[in-house]
Amino acid sequence: MPTPERTRLTWSSRTALKVAGVIAALMAVAVVVALTARAQADLGGARTQPLGTRATPVTRVPSPAAHALAPAPPRASKSTPKPITVVGIGDSVTAGNNCDCQTFVELYARSLASTRSIKTSSVNLGVSGWTSTQLLQSLTQPGTFRDQVATADILLVTIGANDLVPLETLQSAGCATNCYSALVTSVGQNVRRIVAAARQARTGHPATILVTNYWNVFQDGDVGTAENGAAFQRWSDLLTRASGAQICDGALRAGATCVDLYEPFKGDGSRNPTSLLASDGDHPSPAGHQLIASTLLASTPLLIP
């Protein structure tokens, strides 16, 4: 005889078992999906992000190998410095009268190049017989002379002895300090104007200016004593010292460097300069020009504009 109740209970149990199996299967799939997503995150992060979220920026640091392979930046090229132009202006001492030799202008430029490891060129504009007035006139009017002076990085100036030639015929006893002081003072004033004019000719391009005085404005050494006598030599020595002081004063007032030649040639005045003079006893010999060049070099500033 059939028992319907038992039949219904048996069907429900089977159904429940099937549902439970499906749920278990779905949970297993969910676990697998979750584990797979976790594994992907560990290996490099999720490939997609939920809507409404921002990606965190990642800063990549180049490896040392990348730096090694990167091309090095080009080096700044060193510009070749231009040669230093040395220009000499003045009288027959600058011009090199009675000396078949290189003048102190050329010797100075060559020594400057070797001691400072630089390139130099030289121009000698010395004119025999020139006075400070004539040199000043040439510097203050347009022309080739002024243009050449304007090229100087270093300007050498030796001038003033010929201004005093009118005094040479006077007896030493008849021309004491009050006799020559006005003329000596005018030399110093002209030197100051010469330096100023040289700077004006080279406006915007400062130059180093070296101004020398003299060991004697007239003859000296054995020749000077033989031809003029000891009394004249003592007087010319006083005149030379006075003019040298004024030349230096004018140079310094104009911002130039004064280079004393009296001491290198004659020391305290007792040294005989004959070996440094040409046969006329007036102009420098080769040794004299070399001494002037070395004295100028020793007075040259380390910094040349």
Quick summary:
With 305 residues, the protein is an alpha/beta fold. Helices cover 50% and strands 8% of the residues.
Which CATH class of the largest domain is shown?
Alpha Beta
* Through-space gap between termini: 133 Å
Shape: globular
Total of helices: 11
| Structural class by sheet pairing and helices | alpha/beta
CATH superfamily of the largest domain: SGNH hydrolase
CATH architecture call of the largest domain: 3-Layer(aba) Sandwich
The average pLDDT is: 82
Main sheet attributes: strand count, strand direction, barrel closure: 5 strands, parallel
Number of domains: 2
Query: What name is given to the CATH topology of the largest domain?
Result: Rossmann fold
How much strand content do the residues show? 5-15%
Q: What is the string of helix and strand elements?
A: HHEHHEHHEHEHHEHH
- Give the uncertain stretches in residue-range form: 1-23, 31-37, 39-70
Query: How much helicity do the residues have?
Result: 40-55%
**Tally of extended strands?**
5
Describe this structure in words.
The protein is of the alpha/beta class. It folds into 2 domains: 7-40; 84-298, Rossmann fold. The chain is built from 11 helices and 5 strands. The protein has helices at residues 4-44, 64-69, 92-95, 104-116, 132-139, 144-149, 177-201, 221-228, 230-253, 262-266, 286-298; strands at 84-90, 120-124, 154-158, 208-212, 257-259. It has a 5-stranded parallel sheet with strand order 2-1-3-4-5, sandwiched between helices. Helix 5 (132-139) packs parallel to helix 7 and helix 7 (177-201) packs parallel to helix 9. The radius of gyration is 48 Å and the shape is globular. The termini are far apart. Residues 1-23, 31-37 and 39-70 have low confidence and may be disordered.
